[in-house]
UniProtKB/TrEMBL annotation, chain A:
Lineage, broadest ranks: Bacteria, Bacillati, Actinomycetota, Actinomycetes, Kitasatosporales
PANTHER family per record: NODULATION PROTEIN J
Species the sequence originates in: Streptomyces candidus
Transmembrane segment boundaries: 37-57, 69-91, 117-140, 146-167, 174-196, 231-252
Full protein name: ABC-2 type transport system permease protein
Key words of the record: Antibiotic resistance, Membrane, Transmembrane, Transmembrane helix
From TrEMBL, chain B:
Top class in the EC scheme: translocase
Stated family: Belongs to the ABC transporter superfamily. Drug exporter-1 (DrugE1) (TC 3.A.1.105) family.
Pfam families listed in its UniProt record: ABC_tran
Protein name, per record: ABC-type xenobiotic transporter
Stretches assigned to the ABC transporter domain: 7-232
Cited Gene3D superfamilies: P-loop containing nucleotide triphosphate hydrolases
Species assigned in the record: Streptomyces candidus
Subcellular location: Cell membrane
Record lineage: Bacteria, Bacillati, Actinomycetota, Actinomycetes, Kitasatosporales
Length: 255, 308
């Protein structure tokens, strides 16, 4: 080493390089985490295979995979954008990762962009995997890919807002417990594998307003029934997205 | 090279609820120096440093770091400073080299990561993830993350807490190399010897205020002076001894036969005392000069032990 190896030469890397690096790291952390993989990959895939193969739940007319695949896609979005992101961000906050990054050259908005990109990368992998499995099980998707894309994006925005709100306001352990509990409750009551019409009328109309129901119902309208733009469901998701992201922006505590 | 202060804090006040953590603190840090902020737990060290880093908004007073406002000019300031938090700051599932390479990628002209890993002995971490690293390894990784971006100014919050003596020395060496390279270093510490060894300037903080500041040698010289002790037969005529010594010197018999002389103890005074003893047929047994350490200064000023 030279005599002055640490001679100052400060400077931020170009923004694009910083965001790419941050996205890659966030994605790597997510895919390396066993519990996260269980939530985002194994549970949706198992549910899809199990309930398609075994006729436990009455999924209405038609092949059960045609009912289940859209629901499981909705579940995949929720598991990554909400549950996974809430838990990971909660622990990053707890262990000072967010605090340390706050004094790095990476701007906060760039960190949030990287987190969003990492969620989207994970979702692409999930959708590919689940689509391949569903097609193998005889799934015949209908409808307009653009509506599907829009539903997935708005669903991601809605769940991200709620996940970040939870991660930024509760203790990490509380986030861990609550995010898993919400995942389980919405899995059962959000029209993912159990059709909403199995619930009493009054309950049904409330459940229908949940982001998971709007997403699974919208995806089912398009992919199973070939409906055009499901505006109602898109509207519910947009509402949740505005509420969730707005509240997260206002209440998120970085330390 | 600029001679502007790297940190200029004026009248800083920071409260948490009803508790005042920092209470009207003024601090100026010269460039290319090592400044140690010493103080007992809860003195306001971390709050002061974190205000400089832009984590906390002052309730009153102004803070300028490299001439910038840490909050308003955060985007300009952040690439120029390096921060080592007291703990954490790393993804629990990340490996040491992975996190360090990542921090390097956020900077325009980072250090060579492999050289830095070698220098800080982080090579042995291998594929171990952060949560399974030893406390010392986690500390050294945090230090590496603070310097990898080639900052002008580095903040180290208790950089050697929990390190073994070997790792501690290695960290001290790195701090010295940083200064030799022209980097300004501000560190907080509980360890007197760390401040004495490393710092050009020591700032003693207590109850949210600076109660003393200066070079370590200056601080330990100031206030009460050094002492000379010896034993001899009881009841010596100290008035006659004092006549031979400079006017501001004190002499007392602590217990019969044990004498203490306080004042500016230099070779000349020592010679005067021994020749007086020779004239009076006294053998000054166990004659010793005691120098004040920074630890004594600290205890005197704060009435507190430094360690938690």
């Amino acid at each position: 080493m030279s005599t002055a190896p640490y001679t100052p030469m400060p400077g931020a890397a170009p923004l694009g390089r910083m965001i790419a690096a941050q996205t890659a790291l966030e994605t790597k952390m997510l895919l390396r985490n066993g519990e996260q993989l269980l939530l985002t990959v194994i549970i949706p895939a198992l549910l899809l295979v199990l309930f398609s193969a075994v006729d436990i739940i009455d999924t209405g007319r038609g092949k059960s995979v045609d009912f289940l695949a859209p629901g499981v896609l909705a579940l995949a979005v929720m598991s990554t954008a909400f549950t996974g992101q809430a838990i990971a961000t909660g622990f990053e906050r707890r262990y000072g990762v967010l605090k340390r990054l706050a004094t790095s050259p990476l701007p906060r908005w760039a960190l949030m962009t990287a987190k969003t990109l990492s969620v989207l990368v994970t979702e692409v992998l999930q959708v590919l995997l689940l689509t391949v499995i569903a097609l193998g099980l005889g799934w015949s998707p209908q409808g307009d890919p653009l509506s599907v894309l829009l539903l997935l994006l708005l669903g991601t925005a809605a769940f991200s807002g709620l996940g970040l709100l939870m991660a930024g306001t509760l203790r990490a352990e509380a986030t861990l417990a609550a995010a898993n509990l919400v995942f389980l409750l919405l899995l059962v009551g959000g029209g993912v594998i159990v059709p909403l019409d199995k619930f009493p009328d009054g309950v049904q109309s409330v459940l229908g307003l949940l982001p998971i129901s709007a997403l699974s119902d919208g995806l089912r309208d398009v992919l199973q029934h070939g409906a055009s733009m499901p505006w109602g469901n898109l509207g519910v998701l947009a509402g949740w997205a505005v509420l969730g992201l707005g509240a997260a922006a206002k209440f998120f505590r970085w330390e | 090279m600029s001679h502007e202060p790297v940190v200029q804090v004026t009248g800083l006040v920071k409260r948490y609820g009803s508790k005042t953590a920092v209470d009207g603190l003024d601090l100026t840090v010269a460039p290319r120096t090592v400044t140690a902020v010493l103080g007992p737990n809860g003195a306001g060290k971390t709050t002061t440093v974190e205000t400089c880093e832009g984590y906390r908004k002052p309730d009153a007073g102004t803070v300028r770091v490299l001439g910038l406002d840490p909050i308003a000019d955060a985007a300009k300031l952040r690439p120029r400073i390096g921060v080592m938090l007291q703990s954490g700051g790393v993804y629990s599932g990340a490996r040491a080299d992975e996190m360090l390479r990542h921090m390097a990628k956020l900077h325009a002209h980072p250090l060579d990561v492999d050289v830095l890993i070698e220098r800080l002995g982080l090579g042995s971490c291998g594929r171990t993830t952060y949560r399974r690293l030893s406390g010392g390894q986690q500390q050294r990784l945090a230090l590496a993350m603070a310097v990898v971006g080639r900052p002008e100014l580095v903040f180290l919050d208790e950089p050697t807490a929990g390190l073994d003596p070997h790792a501690r020395r290695s960290t001290w060496d790195l701090v010295r190399e940083l200064r030799e390279s022209g980097v300004s270093v501000i560190l907080t510490t509980h360890f007197m010897d760390e401040a004495e060894q490393l710092a050009d300037d020591v700032v003693i903080v207590d109850a949210g205020r600076i109660i003393a500041q200066g070079a370590p040698a200056e601080l330990s010289r100031g206030g009460a002076e050094n002492t000379l002790r010896f034993t001899g037969r009881p009841g010596l005529d100290l008035a006659s001894l004092l006549k031979a010594l400079p006017t501001d010197t004190l002499a007392e018999e602590l217990v019969p036969g044990t004498y203490r002389i306080s004042g500016k103890i230099d070779p000349h005074l020592l010679a005067t005392v021994t020749s007086w003893c020779a004239q009076h047929g006294v053998m000054p047994d166990g004659i010793s000069v005691e120098r004040r350490t920074l630890e004594d200064v600290f205890l005197e000023l704060t009435g507190k032990d430094l360690r938690p």
